[in-house]
């Protein structure tokens, strides 16, 4: 059920991002989605990949600071109001979103929204009782 | 004008006779009252009777900051606490600052020397001194304060900070003499400019700037922006505080050392060998009138040079050149002294960080900024920006609370700090002084 992403600490210097993609290319790791949060000093690169453990191991071997974190992936109808309904469900239940990012699937009508919650368990309860389609981890990595 | 014609323009032979008499008295007194000095003299095989001429000074052992710290807090005092009327401590050091004491007579001497200093810089009885040096354990504020009172001038004890209010007071009270660090002077100029206040409309004629190294270029900038004559002052709490030496407004070329109270020497910082006038090296001072806290051949670690040529102002006292740097790795950030090793201790004591760090010093605008680079590690890496920023702010606060210096902490990747073979490059000083 649970889905995970891989988070990487990056200094804001030229060439750090390309180092990550090079490692992934050599390790045959496929990126499903990504988001980069940054400050003036550093950034955090968050990725959904097809093999978290392998990605973590390769990155650590190359000296990166890496953490696997729990996220929630949900299907969002690719129509006006699709995201709004989900956020409204969460807001009514008082669930705080730490951050989120999205990607659109090649096939199918739905987009995928990645959420990071302060309280993942509670968020999952609220989403399933609100009828939101939560994507299982292994399905997410294989998308 | 000269505050003390008698001493400041005394012929060299007469001055040297006074120096020798005072040196002999000081050496005899510390030998008899401060166990540290007696032990050091004995180790060096020298007794007070061996000091028969000024040249014999070099027979005496050096005193270092580490010696003062080892005798924390009062171990170097040469009088009982009954006779100590004031205690100061060096700025911005760790839990163990350098503590200095003054007798009532020391305070009078200091006031006299600061009155000489103010007058050398152009101050008179009818001047108003805007004293923006910090008041407190730091010697700057009170040093200037007592000197201004001794001179008979009016002193505004504004201390540091709250710059807008300072500008308002400058406008309303019309002070004529400014005393602060050179970087603060330029900061005040900026703030005044933002407030629409022009220094052309203020009444300043001279400023006395010190407590941090600065350059001739900075002097020109200060003189232009603040519309006053800028004089360099030197002093350190271990020797007395401000007023060890001052530039005269007539020449603005080297700082006259008040040699009737302090004997300056220049030594080779590596070998300790005394160097002749005109050769740059490390400044060493021996106090010859201080009662509570005399120092013998105190190594300042400041690099300078001494000049004996007569000055057009008429003072016969030798002049020291601008401080050119340090013979150790001490940083002076906005008047606060910091050793990289002290920051290292704070970083390590948090228990969160690797002992790898780098200090970057920049001068942004006119303010010194110290950036501390430390490496992130997996234990602290939480995936959320705000948590990492909290880690940065927490370390900034700990450093500020422990060392009194404001820094900017920057997290870098593991191994992001260069590991050099042998001595690590801990400090990158980008300031152009």
Structure description:
The complex is a heterodimer of chains A (143) and B (433). Chain A is of the alpha+beta class and 143 residues long. Chain A contains five helices and seven strands, in the order βαββαβαββαβα. Chain A has helices at 16-26, 52-61, 82-92, 120-129, 137-141; strands at residues 3-11, 31-38, 42-49, 66-77, 97-104, 110-117, 134-135. In chain A, a hairpin with a 3-residue loop joins strand 2 (31-38) and strand 3 (42-49). The two termini of chain A are 15 Å apart. The model of chain A has no long low-confidence stretch (mean pLDDT 90). By secondary structure, chain B is of the alpha/beta class. Chain B is built from eleven helices and 22 strands. Chain B has a nine-stranded mixed sheet. Chain B has a five-stranded antiparallel sheet with strand order 11-10-12-13-16. The chains are: A alpha+beta (143), B alpha/beta (433).
Please name the defining characteristics of this protein.
heterodimer, A: 143 residues, alpha+beta, 7-stranded antiparallel beta sheet, 5 helices, 38% strand, globular, B: 433 residues, alpha/beta, 5-stranded antiparallel beta sheet, 11 helices, 24% strand
Can you summarize this structure?
Chain A has 143 residues and is α+β, with helices and mostly antiparallel strands. In chain A, 33% of the residues lie in helices and 38% in strands. In chain A, strands 1, 2, 3, 4, 5, 6 and 7 form a seven-stranded antiparallel β-sheet that branches.
Number of helices of chain A: 5
Which two protein chains have the largest interface (Cβ within 8 Å of the partner's Cβ), and how many residues from each? A-B, 21 and 18 residues
Taking the sheet with the most strands of chain A, its summary is:
7 strands, antiparallel
Number of beta strands of chain B = 22
In N-to-C order, the SSE pattern of chain A is: EHEEHEHEEHEH
What is the rounded Rg of chain B? 23 Å
Estimated radius of gyration of chain A: 16 Å
């Amino acid at each position: 059920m649970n889905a995970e992403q891989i988070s990487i600490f990056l200094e804001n210097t030229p060439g750090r991002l390309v180092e990550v993609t090079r490692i992934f290319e050599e390790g045959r790791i496929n990126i499903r989605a990504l988001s980069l949060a940054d400050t003036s000093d550093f950034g955090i690169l968050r990725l959904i990949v097809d093999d978290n453990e392998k990605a973590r191991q390769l990155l650590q071997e190359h000296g990166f600071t890496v953490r696997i974190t729990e996220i929630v992936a949900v299907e969002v109808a690719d129509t006006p109001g699709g995201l709004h309904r989900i956020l409204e469900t969460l807001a009514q239940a008082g669930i705080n979103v730490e951050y989120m990012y999205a990607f659109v699937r090649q096939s199918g009508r739905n987009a995928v929204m990645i959420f990071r919650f302060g309280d993942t368990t509670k968020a999952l309860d609220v989403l399933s009782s609100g009828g939101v389609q939560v994507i299982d981890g292994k399905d997410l990595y294989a998308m | 004008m000269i505050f003390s014609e008698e001493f400041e323009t005394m012929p060299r032979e007469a001055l040297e006779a006074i120096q020798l008499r005072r040196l002999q008295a000081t050496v005899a007194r510390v030998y008899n009252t401060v166990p540290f000095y007696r032990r050091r003299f004995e180790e060096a095989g020298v007794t007070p009777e061996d000091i028969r001429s000024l040249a014999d000074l070099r027979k005496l052992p050096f005193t270092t900051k580490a010696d003062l710290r080892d005798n924390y807090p009062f171990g170097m005092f040469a009088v009982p606490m009954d006779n100590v009327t004031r205690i100061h401590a060096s700025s911005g050091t760790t839990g163990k600052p350098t503590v200095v004491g003054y007798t009532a007579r020391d305070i009078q001497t200091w006031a006299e020397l600061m009155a000489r200093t103010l007058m050398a810089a152009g101050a008179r009885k009818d001047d108003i001194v805007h004293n923006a040096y910090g008041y407190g354990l730091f010697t700057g504020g009170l040093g200037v304060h007592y000197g201004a009172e001794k001179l008979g001038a009016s002193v505004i004890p504004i201390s540091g900070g709250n710059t807008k209010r300072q500008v308002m007071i400058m406008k309303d009270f019309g002070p004529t003499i400014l005393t602060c660090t050179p970087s603060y002077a330029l900061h005040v100029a900026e703030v005044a400019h933002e407030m629409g206040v022009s220094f052309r409309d203020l009444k300043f004629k001279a400023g006395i700037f010190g407590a941090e190294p600065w350059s001739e270029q900075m002097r020109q900038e200060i003189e232009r922006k603040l519309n006053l004559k800028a004089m360099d002052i030197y002093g350190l709490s271990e020797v007395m505080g401000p007023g060890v030496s001052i530039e005269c407004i007539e020449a603005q070329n080297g700082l006259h050392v008040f040699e009737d109270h302090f004997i300056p020497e220049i030594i080779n910082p590596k070998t300790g060998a005394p160097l002749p006038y005109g050769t740059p090296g490390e400044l060493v001072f021996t106090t010859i009138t201080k009662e509570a806290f005399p120092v013998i051949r105190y190594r300042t670690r400041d690099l300078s040079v001494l000049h004996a040529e007569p000055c057009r102002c008429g003072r016969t006292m030798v002049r020291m050149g601008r401080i050119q740097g340090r013979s150790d790795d001490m940083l002076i950030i906005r008047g606060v002294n910091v050793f990289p090793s002290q920051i290292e201790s704070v970083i390590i004591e948090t228990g969160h960080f690797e002992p790898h760090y780098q200090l970057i010093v920049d001068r942004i605008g006119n303010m010194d900024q110290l950036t501390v680079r430390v490496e992130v590690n997996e234990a602290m890496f939480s995936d959320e920006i705000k948590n990492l920023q909290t880690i940065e702010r927490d370390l900034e606060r700990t450093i500020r609370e422990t060392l009194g210096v404001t820094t900017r902490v920057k997290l870098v990747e593991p191994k992001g700090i260069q590991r050099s073979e042998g001595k690590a490059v801990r400090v990158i000083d980008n300031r152009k002084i």
